[in-house]
User: Fold this.
Amino acid sequence: LVDVLEHPSGWLWQEDGDTVSRAGGSGRDAEMLALRNQVLPHIAILHCEVCQETAQWMLRILQDIVVHHGGEVKSIEIALVLLDPAVAQSSNAEERASTIKQSPFSPTYWSTHALELSETLASDTFSVPVNEQVLEQMAKLTVSHLQFSSDLQQEPGL
Assistant:
């Protein structure tokens, strides 16, 4: 989603003078800015909610694997190794930690993506107003991300 928003001519892209004048001038700029300001915070909230729900769902799946296969699977990280062959093929602890962060089976994968989108929208680069709801969602996500990282015994960095 971040790639789509940041793509040239995407929703966050500010067009140069030549392109804007051919597209309808400064009136068009004002319309696009108003539309961005109205729609993008809602998109961010929805994206964050979907990512957070997905992360929680993935954590429950990993916890269920630990519960049902307790004799052979003693941790959430081992359950993740069973689900994702890329994690299983990691040769050392550092590579495994990196692979876990990139695995869609990992709860931290989803919380990281949601935080990245929120941070992109909140950055000064795009001038999108961040309302209280977006800030609340970012706070919830940060707490969830820290919890997921703790559950996987990972460093929480993005």
Confidence is low (pLDDT under 50) at residues 17-24. Residues 130 and 149 are 26 Å apart (CA to CA).
